[in-house]
Amino acid sequence: MLPLLPGVDPSLGRLDYTSLSQQSLMELLVSGFDDIGVICGSHEALDEVEKWHGVSFDEGQNAQDIGKEKLVTSISWSEMQLEGSLLVQWAPPSLVMLDLHHNRLRGSIDWEKLPEKLQYIFLYDNSFTGPINLTHLPASLKELDAGTNKLSGSVDLSKLPVGLDILFISRNGLTGSIDCTSLPDRLKELSINDNTLSGFINLNKLPVRLGALTLESNSFVGSVNSTSLPPRLHILNLTGNQLSQSLDLSQLPPTVELLLLWHNAFTGSVDLTHLPAFLRELDLSENKLSGGRWWSG
């Protein structure tokens, strides 16, 4: 049951989100946690929000704002052994960063109701379940890490925020195919390894700024075109899939440092005479390639 707070409309039996104070919103945000002692006292006797552990406020208030309620901009509750569910729909609209990594939180997340100003969200290493909706994320979002959870269902990468830099959704239970041809131009890192994804992967239209692509340990099939990779790519990890046919490594970006393609079904011979000068590790082992030793590092 939600606590009785100012902003309740008795006639409608619901809370008016826009009229709630920062204190009320924060109390609602943690109302799904089993124990909040490490954050703010107890459910029966909560401290004033300005005394809560790991909560930061807007320090750039103007003179005319003196006396007004401070706005919550950052919440850092990582590695606190928190348990329970995350009622993200009550996060203050001023929130810019939410860090809850390495806890024991569970249940589904209402991705469509993340605060509009949110730029960074770190939820990795919990036990969140349910689908992940990436089509209605905040437009301001720059980094999302929801790896090492129990998220399931398909992944739609076609409507990510245009300013997104980093997306990590590895080590979940995601299924189906993915489309990498409409990723944001600003994207620098994409990691979806250790899921149950399948189907063909098209690497021909990756963002020009992409520096790291990790699709390891899925069930992708088909061929890989490595002749039109992004010019700034330094890590490509496609290990542990079912990729096949021949490999052309003669036109790799000069920035590539790690190229991990082992444990697939690639065939034929590979020309290794035009590899990038900065390449530190190459692993083509456990394929069906002709020739000799297929790893270096």
What does this structure look like?
With 297 residues, the protein is mainly beta. The protein has two domains: 1-152, Leucine-rich repeat, LRR (right-handed beta-alpha superhelix); 154-297, Ribonuclease Inhibitor (Leucine-rich repeat, LRR (right-handed beta-alpha superhelix), Alpha-Beta Horseshoe), CATH 3.80.10. Helices cover 4% and strands 27% of the residues. It is built from two helices and 24 strands. It has helices spanning 22-29, 37-40, and strands at 8-9, 14-15, 55-57, 72-76, 83-85, 97-99, 104-107, 120-122, 127-130, 143-145, 150-153, 166-168, 173-176, 189-191, 196-200, 212-214, 219-222, 235-237, 242-245, 258-260, 265-268, 281-283, 288-289, 295-296. It has a twelve-stranded mixed beta sheet with strand order 3-4-6-8-10-12-14-16-18-20-22-24, with no helix packed on it. A ten-stranded parallel beta sheet has the order 5-7-9-11-13-15-17-19-21-23, with no helix packed on it. The longest helix has 8 residues, at 22-29. Mean pLDDT is 91; it is low at 6-14.
**CATH homologous superfamily annotation of the largest domain:** Ribonuclease Inhibitor
Total strands: the figure is 24
CATH class of the largest domain: Alpha Beta
Proportion of beta-strand residues = 25-35%
Between the first and last Cα atoms, what is the distance in angstroms?
57 Å
Can you tell me the residue ranges where pLDDT is under 50 for at least 5 consecutive residues?
A: 6-14
Mean pLDDT: 91
Number of domains: 2
Main sheet: which strands, in order across?
3-4-6-8-10-12-14-16-18-20-22-24
Sum up the overall morphology in one term. elongated
CATH architecture of the largest domain: Alpha-Beta Horseshoe
Order of helices and strands: EEHHEEEEEEEEEEEEEEEEEEEEEE
Please bin the fraction of helical residues.
under 10%
Structure class = mainly beta
The whole-angstrom Rg is 23 Å
